[in-house]
Each structure stands twice: as structure tokens, then as C-alpha cells.
Amino acid sequence: MSPLPSSFFARPTLQVARDLLGAYLVYESPDDGRMVGRIVETEGYRADDPAMHGWKATFGDDGRVRPEGRAADLFAAPGTAYVYKVYYTHWLLNVVTEPEGEAGAVLIRAVEPVEGEEAMAANRPASVRRRRDLTNGPGKLTQAFGINEPPEATTSRFHGTDLTAPPLYMAEGGPVSDDRVEITSRIGLSRGIDLDYRFVVAGHPFVSPGEPSDVRRARKTGG
Question: For every one of its 223 residues, what pLDDT tens digit does the chain have, with 9 covering 90 and above?
Fold first, then answer.
């Protein structure tokens, strides 16, 4: 499998998020061998998006973002890994998009195992009751691939690495036709919940089970 080039990611974030459906996430693990998953769910985060970490990035007098905090990393070269921890234990894999100097990222939310499934299962032995639970969520897939970190870690060894070259990269897969793509609001957000920046392969069993944020708000408010 050949990695997708940086030019693939140096495009508008939502185009990249859409076009990553059907592509492969590949990790050539030194311990577990090669693991491959077909991407079936993504979320885009753009510079005009209040849910994006770079929303309040600090800029200097020269107009360039200051290298302070993780927000600055969203302005890195396209194809760079942006990895962070949520809820103290779950590590989420994003890929930086847009031309360098412009903020953008795509979260890889779910993949379908294609190769190395036995190793994936071994990495998630206490958590899996059904096959689809291996990788049907952003924290699940990083654990299954062994690209997560221990709970006490504060940074990821993959953060800032180049996702256009081994050992961790994305490769071209079979295209997904528009009639098979569903676009919704994103999951688990309190800001930017009306933005339809989530892309899924409709009806795919490995799509994460979370409820889109606008649907969840309407259900709770009766709206």
C-alpha cells in the first residue's frame, strides 16, 4: 500500500474528510505486524469552527500563529498527525489539513478491520463483545491499532509525525460513491453542533454508535 501524499491533505478540510471514506489507515507495528482498517467515519474541523482547538489560537504581530500549546500544531504541514487525549484515557487520531499555515484537521472516527484483526483484538481484550466494537469509535481504533498511550501519559508519540510515510499512514482505498455517504453534525460537542461536518458510510456496521450533537440537543430539549 502506498501512502497518500501530502497534496491529498493540502485541500479544504471537508473535502479531505469526505474523500478519506474508503481509504485505509495503516500501521506497520514493530510488535504486532501490519494492521489495516478501512475508514468509514470522519469529522472535519475548520478554522471557522468554534469546536476546533485552533479556534482561539494566539497570533503574533507578524500575523503568524505563536508556537504555544497544541492549537499551533493545527497550522502544521498537511498530513501531520494531531493526536490528543480525552476523558483521561482515550487517544484520538487526527490528520492536519489545508495548506501549511492554515488551520484544519480531520478526526478518524471509525474503521473496518481489513488486516491484522487478531492483533487488534488482542489490544482490546477486555472491551470487545462484538466484532464491530473493535474499531467503531475514535478511542477504540487507536487502542486496537496500538497507537494509544498509557493513561498516565500526557503526550502521544505519534503527535506531530508525518502520516504520509510509514509506520503510521493513510493509503488509497476503494472510492465511496456519494449515494453511500451520509453527512451529519458531529458527535459529543457543545459548540458548533449545527455544522454538518461528519461523514459516514451510510449503514456501515463499524460506524460509531454515538448520536449526532444536533439530534441529541433536540431530543433533550424537545425541539
Answer: 899 999 999 999 999 999 999 999 999 999 999 999 999 999 999 988 888 776 555 455 655 555 555 677 888 999 999 999 987 789 999 999 999 988 899 999 999 999 999 999 999 987 788 999 999 999 999 999 999 999 899 999 999 999 999 999 999 999 999 999 999 998 988 888 999 999 999 999 999 998 887 787 778 777 6
CA 131 to mean position of chain CA atoms: 20
Q: Is position 40 within any domain?
A: yes
Q: Find all residues with CB under 8 Å of 85, minimum gap 6, and list them.
A: 91, 92, 149, 153, 154, 156
CATH number, domain with residue 166: 3.10.300.10
Domain count, the chain: 1
3-state class of 95 per DSSP?
strand
The residue segments making up the domain with residue 214 are 6-221
pTM of the model: 0.91
- Asked whether residue 33 is assigned to any structural domain, the reply reads yes
The answer to whether residue 1 is domain-embedded is no
Q: How many CA atoms lie within 13 A of 44 on its CB side?
A: 29
Largest CA distance in the chain: 54
Q: Is 17 a member of any domain?
A: yes
CA–centroid distance for 78 within its chain = 14
